[in-house]
Specification:
single chain, mainly beta, four-stranded antiparallel sheet
Length: about 130
């Protein structure tokens, strides 16, 4: 994964170790490594990861819900509980309901795009 796409607070996965896949929050980016805090399965552990160990988290209905979105009346439309930027989905990718939005396939892209377009941090509740 290209660590230049990451920002502190982004949600990522670590490649499975001992048959366990971990969810982590980016804390800091240092040169060619990323310092992350595990949020699942061993909350609180800190890791220094290389880009090859990082996997993006694909967008799903579950992750949209954890990000504060609720399904709208029409298919593929997700309302933002904060009222800032609704999400339009199709085939496991989408974009924010904003003319300057880019395509989004992963949770960290949603977080970054939300920040870019609204100047607000998108918090993921796990």
């Amino acid at each position: 994964m290209d660590i230049n796409e990451l920002k502190p607070g982004n949600l990522i996965k670590v490649q499975p170790r001992e048959d366990q896949e971990g969810l982590l929050l980016v804390q800091e980016i240092q040169h060619a490594t990323v310092i992350c805090e595990m949020i699942s399965p061993r909350k609180g552990y800190l890791f220094r990861l290389k880009p090859v160990e990082i996997t993006p988290v694909p967008i799903s209905d579950d992750w949209l819900t954890k990000a504060g979105y609720t399904p709208g009346m029409s298919s593929g439309y997700w309302s933002d509980s904060r009222g800032a930027a609704s999400y339009l989905s199709k085939n496991n990718e989408g974009r924010l309901d904003h003319p300057d939005s880019v395509n989004i396939k992963y949770v960290h892209e949603l977080q970054n795009e939300y920040l870019r377009l609204t100047a607000s941090t998108l918090t993921i509740i796990n």
